[in-house]
Amino acid sequence: MIQYVRKFFISLLLLWFLIAICMMVSGTNLFFPFDLDIDQSEKMYRYKTIRFAAGCLLAYAVFRYLFSFKATPSLGIVFNYGFFYLAGGIIFAYRDNVETHYLFHHLVVAFLLVLIWFELRQKIRDEGGKFKRDHF
Question: Does 133 map to a domain?
């Protein structure tokens, strides 16, 4: 039963990604979770956090490639990005004295990360090391 709950929430995350992409292409900004309009200081905070997470994710991928670690599953990429997003959010919130009401969306991200982590753990148990020989 719990696996269906995890899959449901991960499906909602996919739906949010698709809606956000379509709205971005059409010229409307959509911020997580479903904020259409946020003030300028919150936009700057989120942009810094997103840039930090994307940079860390790319550095992590190159590091794994250079040292020939096994390939990361597709949900692992989403999990790592979310982890870097939370870490960057905490760093920038502390450094820039960001107000706490700007940090509400981090609770949603943390909840989704926990669900993705459980899903990844379940996949590892079910598949028994399927990714051992795959490389980038």
Answer: no
